[in-house]
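Checklist before submission:
- one chain only
- standard amino acids only
- sequence pasted in full

Submission:
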Amino acid sequence: MELVVRKTDLLRELQLFQGIVERKNTIPILANVLIETDGDHVKFLATDLEVGLRTRCSASVAKSGSLTLPAKKLYEIIKALPDTDVRIEENKNGVKVAADRFDSRMQTLPREDFPSLPEATGSYSATLPREVMKQMVAKTQFAITGEDTRYFLNGALFIQKPDLMSLVATDGHRLALISVPREKVKGKKGDEEERVILPRKTLL
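Returned file contents:
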């Protein structure tokens, strides 16, 4: 695989994964981000087996392929580079990351070891206003617990009705609830609702 991508684009995508991947992990491949070419784009995927994130950005692809690299180490390297084009090239000695006079070699793990994410099979989907969601998360995040023993509290309950959105979080001692009106969805009855628990890492 060989491609060239703008530093600002690559840094923006890698920054999104920093709250998901962990340096210390019993499964080494989960500390890596999967990088795949797709026409004139490059796709990224990271997961901790609870939360997964896919993203993509424009790139100049000279040779298609896929590989995995340590997500946090790659992010730190790209962050320190000047604002220029970054070349990522795989060869028999590993993966070369270069920009201007900078040249780094990184070791990769087999792409085959990277877990696949399940595809969404539900029939319901919705587009939510970003600023409203940010406000809802900001007012409920303090009540989301980080305890591993009660995993069902490690997130917030999102409730969507045809004319109302609510977010509920609790750590067993405190309860946070915010409800925001939304434009009524056509074809939906007033008492219909969708419920889903959004993981802590997804929100924060």
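Reviewer check: The mean pLDDT is 87.
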